[in-house]
Design a protein that fits this description.
Layout (H helix, E strand, L loop, with lengths): L15 E7 L2 H11 L4 E8 L9 E2 L7 H10 L4 E4 L2 H6 L1 H7 L4 E2 L3 H8 L1 H10 L7 E5 L3 H10 L4 E5 L8 E4 L2 H13 L9 E6 L4 E9 L4 E3 L4 E2 L2 E3 L3 E4 L4 E4 L6 H21 L6 E10 L2 E8 L6 H5 L3 E2 L2 H10 L8 E2 L2 E10 L24 E5 L2 E4 L2 E4 L3 E10 L3 H12 L7 E2 L6 H7 L1
Parallel strand pairs: 1-2, 1-4, 2-3, 4-5
Antiparallel strand pairs: 6-9, 7-8, 7-9, 10-11, 10-16, 12-15, 13-14, 15-20, 16-17, 18-19, 20-24, 20-25, 21-24, 22-23
Helix pairs in contact: 5-6, 7-8
The structure holds adenosine monophosphate and glycine.
C-alpha cells in the first residue's frame, strides 16, 4: 500500500512551529505524522533521538524539565507543544504553559492524575460507575489491614503502587506469599518511594487486553482505532513485562459492539466525571481495557498515547494532526471530524538482547536503507544515536518497524512488517515473532 508521507509541496498560508516532547518511538511517530501536515512549518523535538533528527530539529532539554521546556517554547514562539510521555504531564507542564497563554496538547496536572495516581483513578471509577476490577486502597500506616486483606482473598490478586513507577509498579500475584512479599517491598523497603506508599490491591481480571485512545478538548471527543500491545518479552505472552514489544490496529477483539460499550460505559462517563470534579480532561486519554465475553472493563488509564500503540494508530489517521491537536488544545474539537484510512498497521519492536534487564548499547544498525515508505514500511526509532554516520543502538527498545497495509488484510500487513524486520540487523537484535497473531484468531 502506498503511504502518504511528506506531502509538503502543497503547503498554503498558515505555517506553524511545533515542539514535540519525548524521545521514543511514540514521539518519532508523532513527528512523522506532524511532518505531513500542510500547516506545519518547523518541528522541534526535545530531547528526541537520531531517527527523529531526520525530520525535526533536536533540542537538548530533558522531557521532565518543565521550566526549561516552557522557556524554550516561549523564546522560540512555538505555536503548539505536544507532550509524549506522562512524567511532564503529571508534573504539570500543561498548567505551566497555559498560565502564560502558550498552546499545549495534553491534560492538566489534576486531570493527569488519572494516570499519576491509581488510587485516584480507582476511586473516580467507583464514584462514576465505570466498570473496572474490584479493589481496596491501603496507605503505609494501614499495612496490617492490607496484609489481612491479602490473607482473606483468593488468588491471583494484583498489587499496584499508587504513583508512577516506570511501568514496574504492578505485580500480578499468584500466591499469598508473593503478595505479602510485594507489599513488604512497597511499604517496608520503599522500592518506589512515595509512589509506593499507597497501594491498590485489586481483583485479577480474565480476558484479552486492548487499548483505545480518546482525543478530546474536554467536551467533544473522538475515538481512534483500537490497538493491541504485546507487553511480555516472549512469544505467547510469556516472560517478563516490558514497555511493549509490538502493537497493531485496528484490533478485532474490539468489535463495533465493544467499541460502543467503551464509548458509552467508559469514555462518556469519564469525561463527564472529570468535568464534574473540576478536572476537565484535554488531550489524549489512553483507556487500557480487559475484554471478556464482549464486556470491556478498565485496567488502567494513561494520560498520553501508548508506546508502541501510537506507532500503529497514528499512521491510520487520514487528516492533519496539527489541526486535530490544536483543536483539542483550544476547545474547538467539535468542528473537526477525524477520519481514518481503510488500512491496518502493525508495529514490531526490535529490542536489544537482554531487555528488559541488562543489555549492551552502541551496536551498529544495518539495513535501514533497505526499507522504503513506498512499500508501506516506516521505521520509527525508539533509542538510537548517530556515530560516524551510522545509526547505533542506545537503549532497550531500539526500533519500531511499522507496516501499513489494507484493513481487511491484517495477515498481509503482519507479513510485510516481518519481511522488513528481517532486513534490519544489529548485534543482539531481538523481536517477538507473534505480533498480531491474536488478531488473526478473531478473524479466522
Ligand atoms: P497497569 O499498569 O495497571 O496497566 O498494569 C500493567 C499490566 O498488568 C496490565 O497491562 C495487565 O496486563 C496487568 N494487570 C493490571 N491490572 C490487572 C487486573 N486487575 N487484572 C488482570 N491483569 C491486570
Ligand atoms: N504500551 C503501554 C503503554 O504505553 O503504557
Amino acid at each position: 500500500m502506498k503511504l502518504k508521507t511528506t506531502n509538503i509541496e502543497n503547503r498554503t498560508a498558515a505555517r506553524a512551529t511545533v515542539l514535540v516532547i519525548g524521545s521514543g518511538g511514540r514521539e518519532h511517530a508523532l513527528v512523522w505524522k506532524l511532518k505531513q501536515s500542510p500547516s506545519v512549518k518547523e518541528i522541534y523535538c526535545a530531547p528526541g533521538n537520531a531517527g527523529i533528527a531526520e525530520l525535526a530539529t533536536l533540542v537538548s532539554i530533558k522531557a521532565d524539565d518543565v521550566e526549561g521546556l516552557f522557556q524554550f517554547a516561549a523564546k522560540n514562539r512555538i505555536d503548539l507543544t505536544i507532550v509524549g510521555p506522562e512524567v511532564p504531564l503529571v508534573k504539570g507542564i500543561v498548567d505551566r504553559f497555559e498560565k502564560d497563554g502558550m498552546k499545549i496538547f495534553g491534560p492538566s496536572k489534576r486531570a493527569a492524575e488519572l494516570e499519576g495516581s491509581k488510587a485516584f483513578a480507582k476511586q473516580f471509577m467507583k464514584k462514576y460507575h465505570i466498570p473496572t476490577a474490584d479493589f481496596e486502597i491501603f496507605t503505609k500506616s494501614q499495612s496490617a489491614e492490607a496484609e489481612e486483606f491479602i490473607r482473606r482473598h483468593s488468588f491471583p490478586l494484583v498489587v499496584k503502587a499508587d504513583g508512577l513507577a516506570a511501568g514496574k509498579g504492578v505485580v500480578v500475584c499468584q500466591t499469598q506469599t508473593e503478595a505479602l512479599n510485594i507489599l513488604g517491598e512497597f511499604f517496608g523497603k520503599n522500592i518506589f518511594g512515595d509512589a509506593g506508599s499507597t497501594v491498590v490491591i485489586e481483583e485479577f481480571m480474565q480476558g484479552e487486553e486492548a487499548s483505545v485512545f480518546v482525543l478530546t478538548d474536554g467536551t467533544d471527543y473522538q475515538l481512534l482505532q483500537p490497538a493491541q500491545d504485546h507487553k511480555q518479552i516472549l512469544d505467547d505472552d510469556r516472560g517478563k513485562n516490558t514497555g511493549g514489544m509490538g502493537a497493531y490496529a485496528p484490533a478485532p477483539v474490539v468489535t463495533k459492539t465493544v467499541m460502543k460499550r467503551v464509548e458509552e460505559e467508559i469514555v462518556r462517563p469519564v469525561l463527564h466525571g472529570m468535568r464534574e470534579e473540576g478536572r476537565t480532561y484535554k488531550g489524549c486519554l489512553y483507556v487500557g481495557l480487559m475484554i471478556a465475553s464482549g464486556i470491556p472493563r478498565v485496567v488502567e488509564f494513561n494520560c498520553r498515547f501508548g508506546d508502541p500503540e501510537a506507532q500503529a494508530v497514528l499512521p491510520l489517521i487520514d487528516g492533519d494532526l496539527f489541526e486535530i491537536f490544536s483543536a483539542c488544545a483550544v476547545g474547538s474539537f467539535g468542528s473537526i471530524k477525524v477520519k481514518h484510512h481503510d488500512a491496518s498497521a502493525v508495529c514490531i519492536v526490535v529490542a536489544s538482547r537482554g531487555y528488559p534487564d541488562e543489555y549492551e548499547k552502541g551496536k551498529i544498525i544495518h539495513g535501514l536503507e533497505s526499507v522504503r515508505a513506498e512499500d508501506g514500511i516506516v521505521v520509527f526509532h525508539a533509542a538510537t544515536k548517530k556515530e560516524n554516520k551510522s545509526f547505533v543502538t542506545s537503549g532497550g527498545r531500539v526500533l519500531g518497524v511499522t507496516a501499513i497495509g489494507y484493513r481487511n488484510d491484517l495477515e498481509g500487513t503482519i507479513n510485510s512488517a516481518y519481511s522488513a524486520v528481517k532486513r534490519i540487523t544489529f548485534d543482539g537484535a531481538y523481536y517477538r515473532s507473534d505480533i498480531g497473531k491474536k488478531g488473526l484468531r478473531h478473524l479466522h
